[in-house]
Amino acid sequence: MSFEGIVQIENKDTTAEVNQQLTQGWELLAITPSNDGLVYTIGRRATKKTSSEILRDSGL
Q1: Which helix (H) or strand (E) covers residue 43, if one does?
Q2: pTM of the predicted model, to two decimals?
Q3: Do the beta carbons of residue 30 and residue 16 sit within 8 Å?
C-alpha cells in the first residue's frame, strides 16, 4: 500500500472512532500495540478535483 497522496494522519484508540472515519473515506494505515491497548493510524487522501474545478483554478 502506498501512502502517496495522504494529506492527513490521525491516531485513534477505539474501533468505533476508526469505523466512523472509515465510512467517511479514511484508510487504515497501521495498527500498533501500546501500553493502553491498540492504536489505529488512519489517513485521508486529498480529494480529486473535477475537470471544471481544474479549469476554474487555472484561470481559463
Answers
A1: strand 37-45
A2: 0.74
A3: no
